[in-house]
Amino acid sequence: xxxxxxxxxxxxxxxxxxxxxxxxxxxxxxxxxxxxxxxxxxxxxxxxxxxxxxxxxxxxxxxxxxxxxx
Length: 70
Fold this sequence. Notes:
Strand content: over 45%
Structural class: mainly beta
Mean pLDDT: 88
Largest sheet: 6 strands, mixed
Shape: globular
Number of strands: 6
Radius of gyration: 12 Å
């Protein structure tokens, strides 16, 4: 879902870690880019610090973000 509200952009991001689906989330702001380090918050307060290796736009408002554990 892409919603423009008061100049803000909202996206749906599907995260994949080493090729396996990790989670999805609603996201506000600029999309992550290749090479960028991101922190993914998981259930139960766990976090993963990882790097974006590829992005794939599915639609105007949804993207797949491929991450690497290396």
